[in-house]
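DEPOSITED CHAIN:
***
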Amino acid sequence: VQKADFIGRCRICSQSYEALQRVREIEPRIEVGFIAGAAVGDLSRREVDFLMLNMPLINRKLVEQCRARGLPVHAWTVRQPDELPRLLDAGVANVITDDPAAIRQRLEEVQQLEPVERLLLFARNRLAE
């Protein structure tokens, strides 16, 4: 990455927190992201630039804690378009999917909702938490 001068164009992600810390020691300008499929403890306290979290881990409270620390949350893997509104309402920065066309279509549908419809969808998502 250094030799190719890709530091500003690359991110390193891993499930190994230790490996990410080693990357930081070698090249502090590279953004690093922790990938979590399960968690014990407060993920928002990780010394990384962003989190990539398995969808079941994501809730509004965790995303708010992360955002307060300047830590964007990316949700993975979003396969069902109907999962998107809950994640948007939780405040995720991005979603990772293997069906971008379906997710993009659902995003456009949500964005086109009337304010009252969007509020009802938000209320439903909050009640489901």
Summary: The beta strands are 11-14, 31-36, 50-54, 73-76, 94-95. The longest strand covers residues 31-36.
